[in-house]
Write a structure and sequence with these properties.
Number of helices of chain A: 11
Structural class of chain A: alpha/beta
Keywords (chain A): Oxidoreductase
Shape of chain B: globular
Strand content of chain A: 5-15%
Structural class of chain B: alpha/beta
Shape of chain A: globular
Pfam families (chain A): TPP_enzyme_C
Oligomer: heterodimer
CATH architecture of chain A: 3-Layer(aba) Sandwich
Radius of gyration of chain B: 21 Å
Helix content of chain B: 25-40%
Number of domains of chain B: 2
Largest sheet of chain B: 7 strands, mixed
Protein name (chain A): Thiamine pyrophosphate-dependent enzyme
Helix content of chain A: 25-40%
CATH topology of chain A: Rossmann fold
Strand order of the largest sheet of chain A: 2-1-3-4-6-5-7-8
Strand content of chain B: 15-25%
CATH architecture of the largest domain in chain B: 3-Layer(aba) Sandwich
Largest interface: A-B, 44 and 42 residues
Radius of gyration of chain A: 19 Å
Number of helices of chain B: 14
Family (chain B): Belongs to the pyruvate:ferredoxin/flavodoxin oxidoreductase family.
Distance between the termini of chain B: 56 Å
Number of strands of chain A: 8
InterPro entries (chain A): PorB-like (IPR051479), THDP-binding (IPR029061), TPP_enzyme_TPP-bd (IPR011766)
CATH class of the largest domain in chain B: Alpha Beta
CATH superfamily of chain A: Thiamin diphosphate (ThDP)-binding fold, Pyr/PP domains
Distance between the termini of chain A: 49 Å
Order of helices and strands of chain A: HEHEHEHHEHEHEHHEEHH
CATH class of chain A: Alpha Beta
Number of strands of chain B: 18
Chain lengths: ~325, ~400
Amino acid sequence: MTTVHIPFLQTGTLAVGGRLLDDAERSVQSHADRPSSLTKGHRACQGCAEALAARWVMDTAVEASDGKLVVANATGCLEVFSTLYPESAWKPPWIHSLFANAAAVATGIAASLHAQGRDDVRVLAQGGDGGTVDIGLAAVSGMFERNDDVLYVCYDNQGYMNTGVQRSSATPAAARTATTPAVGRSPGQAFGQGKSMVKIAMAHEIPYVASATPADLRDLEHKVRTAMSIRGARYLHVLVPCPVGWGSASSQSIALARAAVQSGIFPVVEARAGELTDVQRIRERADVEEYLRPQARFAHLFKPGGEDALARWRALADANIRRYDLLGERS
Amino acid sequence: MREVLEGSQAVARTVARCRPGVVCAYPISPQTHIVEALSVMARTGELADCEYVNVESEFSAMSVSIGASAGGSRAYTATASQGLLYMAEAVYNAAGMGLPIVMTVANRAVGAPINIWNDHSDAMAMRDSGWLQLFAADNQEAADLHVIAFAVAEELGIPAMVCMDGFVLTHASDVVELPTAAQVDAFLPPYRPTQVLDIRHPTTIGTMAGPESFTETKYLQHLRFLDATGVIESWSERFREAFGREAGGLVARYDPDTLDRDRLAPPASSDDLVVVAMGSVIGTLQAALAPMRAAGIPVRLVGVSSFRPFPGDALREAVGASRHVMVIDRALELGSGGVLTGCVGRALAGTRSRLHSVVAGLGGRPILEASLQEAVRMALDGELGRLEFLDLREGGVPTPTAGATEVAR
């Protein structure tokens, strides 16, 4: 029998729950009576970071709204694995309408609650990268532009995982998907494509935009709480590793999310009214290999001929580090 | 109070008196005047306790309506043509989830070629979406139908389209008597949603249904649609009692001689040619057929008020002993014939009726009284085919004359 040594970190941001902290300072997840808004019994894959992040996000939002939360969900993994009739894994009132319209449905709910004088009830919309960055972008942009009172959360697993791992406009360069195969002279997703939803959201100058990962629970909860303390359109972009789509071990989802941050590939930021207000510095710099190598979708980068793509990946990380001053060199 | 109003204004004011909680708007001709008027009323306070939301597309207009309805509000929007097709996915979704949204469809052709004028091809494209589709013959009925539509939709948990001909009704000024706010308050029960996103009673709406339950879900939807005929009849009856005029119903009957709407008009007799029509062309037919009746020509008029659910029984009753039916169709099922004719044919299956499909007024082509009269005469003389295109130009699409081409150069 193989054994795995798990270091036990008792304090600080790396410790899930921070059990040695005062009760009031502990994370929502560290409490035995956490809401468990996405409860057990759903059909998510082993190691699904989306399921984990969704529960953490929603539990925090439920607590921040004093239990008065309504959720609109886009079509996608999160919807499919949680609500196969006649079962539902959701504790809050929850609606799924279509793939592209979660933001607009949320607008409708918020408008309805406002018309009924129920501004105490808060609205959260959520979807994957396909439902947000691609097919749902117009509705998301409309909701932002009108500054509707909705927190929109995108769980970005960088592809259409629910339909069998096809490329989305959030798929990173060189990644192999079912529609960007690792064959030919430039295998995988092309370099120079894709879009940054965080920057798009910031360009709308909405009250609050943030990015986060499930590798840092306290940061994620902090951002949800901050978002819930604000009225108007808010956007949270959460990177969620997908063992099936990324070709990674299900035990590595959190490690990969952390490597994405520590290598500079996924900047963890906060912005208000279009201005960047906070950037999480890299604590222990990781090489991009630490992020890429455990993922089968990047296997071709580590074969002869992959050197060029690997160099371009390092350049991407360096560009992020410069742009967001992730090493704190300018401050 | 009788007043002269544009059709869109009449509809907008009536909708406001139905007290919607959320009105969602995206502009498209010929529906724009309705949502423009509602935006003014939302600002002046005439439309009270209502959120008016300007969105970025029809897809979002219907999606916001879905959220609003599920959130517990009476929700309204309006669209037409390309807009209706752009929101098609959400139209089906609203019906599947049983959300009683009311939407005005200002009927307009669907491109290409792009065309902003009136026919029924937009609504017909949504005929199996699971919505009720109620057609207005004139502006008075267009206004009245909205009051009935909210009542019927909310009792059934089925969304309802009120279809009114674009421009012909929406932009035409006519004498109308609007339902007053007091009358509507007395008639229309407050919105009590059957399913709602309620924090006190959390529910999951919009789950996935697999092969083991999808058929049954659709069957239940079908049964509810069968119930709809009775509910439409009942609310239309109550409307007549409360407002003293006829609106809605399943099938409109017309007096054989005056051609006025008359629910007590006798069924057609075996000698009669029955003209079946839907929408504003009924008004043209009333004018065209009255002198023919006066001249002793055996022709009768039957209007289809509810296209969905399609009232097969009521239509058979109105057609009576007649075995000769001509359908005026405002939408074409390519390679087959008129869409309405297909439904009429199914309703009359087994009666061995001779059926003519007269496709008329596509993309706003005026439907002339004289042309209708000629079609009736030809049908009675046995000269009308099973499928005819009214006033079709010989030689196909007109091209510029040589002289015009020279000028253009």
